[in-house]
Design a protein that fits this description.
single chain; 356 residues; alpha+beta; Ribosomal Protein S8, Chain: A, domain 1; seven-stranded mixed sheet; three-stranded antiparallel sheet; 37% helix; globular; disordered N terminus; Mal/L-sulf/L-lact_DH-like_ah
Length: 356
C-alpha cells in the first residue's frame, strides 16, 4: 500500500502534470509509446491519494532510467501463451507500460474465457496497484493483483530479525452496481516508499512500525538504512504479525514463483514480479446473483451508523473521492514533490508546472 501523505495547499492542473512527466521521461530515453502510460500511472498515484507513488516517485524513475535500470524500448518476451493464461518476461521494460499491455490482452481474452491470468517476470516498478483495477471493475470484472520485488528484503519472519521478504502489496478490484470496492494494501504495516519518505525528511513515524536489528520496536525509519538493517513489521505487528507474513508469502508464491523470477538468483532491486488474474462473474453463478449479493453486503455495511454517527468507509471509497475532487479542483501534490523534481527540470530543460 502506498502512503497517503498530506498534500500542499497549492493545486496543479492534471494535464500539465501529465505532460511534464511524459516529457521528462522521454528526455531521459523512454520511447513516447512507453512514457505515456508511465505518466498516467504516476498521475493516478496522486489522484487516488497514494502520493508516495505519484509524481513524488518520478525522480526515482528518472534516476533509474539514467542509470540503465529501466529500459526505454524493447519487446516483451512471451514465455507461455494460451487463451486463458500468459507468462511474460519484461526484461526491465517500464512496468506501467507492461501492465497496460497485460490489461489489453486480458480484456480481449476475457470475452471468451471465464478467468484470464497473466504473470510478468522482471519488469520495472509498476506503481500504484489500485490504478490498474479500474479498467476491469468498470466492465464488471473481478481483478486480483499482486506484485513484489525479489531484490528487496525488508520484512523479517515472525520472531526473526533478518529481512527475508519485502512489503508485498496485494490488491483486488470488486465491482458493484455502484462504486467498486478497491482493496490495495501491503502485507506489512506500510510500504518501503513510505518509510523512505519519512527517512528523507528526518521525521519519526506515527507509531512503532519497525524493528531495529535487535528486534526492538521503533518509530525511527533510519534503522532501515543501518548495518545491519532493521526490518518492517508485518500486518498485525508483534501480536499477530504471523498473519500478515502469511499473506506476504502468498504474494511471493503468486508474483515470483509462478512467473519463475525470484530471490534464488539474487537479483538487484530494480525488477518486479507480477500476478494479475481477472474473473468474469457472469461465467459462474451469473452476473445478477453476483451483483445482488454484493448489493446486500454493501447495504449491510452502509446500514452501520458507525462510531459518532459518521458511517463506515469501504476500501477505495476515499481514493475515488480524492480522484474526483482533484480532477475538478486540481491536484495537491506531496509537499516534497516539486523540490525532488527541480534538479531534473533544470537538467532536462522541462519547467515544472506552475500551481493554479
Amino acid at each position: 500500500m502506498a502512503s497517503r501523505a498530506p498534500g500542499t495547499s497549492e493545486r496543479y492542473d492534471a494535464e500539465e502534470l501529465r505532460a511534464y512527466a511524459r516529457r521528462t521521461l522521454e528526455r531521459v530515453g523512454i520511447d513516447a509509446e512507453l512514457a505515456s502510460p508511465m505518466a498516467d500511472r504516476l498521475l493516478d498515484g496522486d489522484l487516488l491519494g497514494h502520493r508516495s507513488h505519484g509524481l513524488w516517485f518520478l525522480s526515482t524513475y528518472l534516476r533509474r532510467i539514467s542509470d540503465g535500470h529501466i529500459r526505454g524500448s524493447g519487446e516483451i518476451e512471451v514465455v507461455h501463451a494460451s487463451a486463458a493464461s500468459a507468462s511474460w518476461r519484461a526484461h526491465r521494460l517500464p512496468g506501467a507500460w507492461v501492465m497496460d499491455e497485460a490489461t489489453r490482452l486480458i480484456l480481449k481474452q476475457i470475452t471468451s474465457e471465464p478467468v484470464v491470468t497473466v504473470t510478468i517476470a522482471d519488469c520495472s516498478h509498476i506503481g500504484c496497484l489500485q490504478s490498474f483495477l479500474l479498467p476491469f471493475t468498470d466492465r464488471g470484472l473481478l481483478a486480483i493483483l499482486t506484485a513484489t520485488n525479489p531484490g528487496v528484503a525488508s520484512v523479517a519472519a515472525p520472531g526473526g530479525s533478518r529481512p527475508v521478504i519485502t512489503t508485498n502489496p496485494i490488491a483486488m478490484g470488486i465491482p458493484t452496481r455502484s462504486e467498486p470496492i478497491l482493496v490495495d494494501q501491503c502485507t506489512s504495516v506500510a510500504s518501503n516508499a513510505l518509510f523512505e519518505s519519512y527517512a528523507e525528511r528526518g521525521e519519526r513515524l506515527p507509531g512503532q512500525w519497525l524493528l531495529d536489528a535487535t528486534g526492538r520496536p521503533t518509530d525511527d525509519p533510519q534503522v532501515l538504512r543501518q548495518d545491519p538493517p532493521g526490518t518492517i513489521q508485518s500486518l498485525g505487528q508483534a501480536d499477530f504479525g504471523y498473519k500478515g507474513f502469511g499473506f506476504g508469502l502468498m504474494s511471493e508464491a503468486l508474483s515470483l514463483a509462478l512467473p519463475g523470477y525470484g530471490r534464488r538468483d539474487n537479483p538487484d532491486r530494480h525488477g518486479q514480479g507480477v500476478f494479475l488474474q481477472v474473473i468474469d462473474p457472469g461465467r459462474f453463478a451469473g452476473t445478477d446473483d453476483y451483483f445482488d449479493e454484493l448489493d446486500h453486503l454493501v447495504g449491510s455495511i452502509r446500514a452501520d451508523p458507525g462510531v459518532g454517527g459518521e458511517g463506515v468507509r469501504l476500501p477505495g471509497e476515499r481514493a475515488l473521492r480524492s480522484r474526483a475532487e482533484q480532477l475538478a479542483d486540481g491536484i495537491a501534490l506531496h509537499p516534497d514533490t516539486p523540490g525532488r523534481l527541480r534538479p531534473w527540470s533544470d537538467e532536462l530543460g522541462v519547467p515544472f508546472p506552475r500551481p493554479r
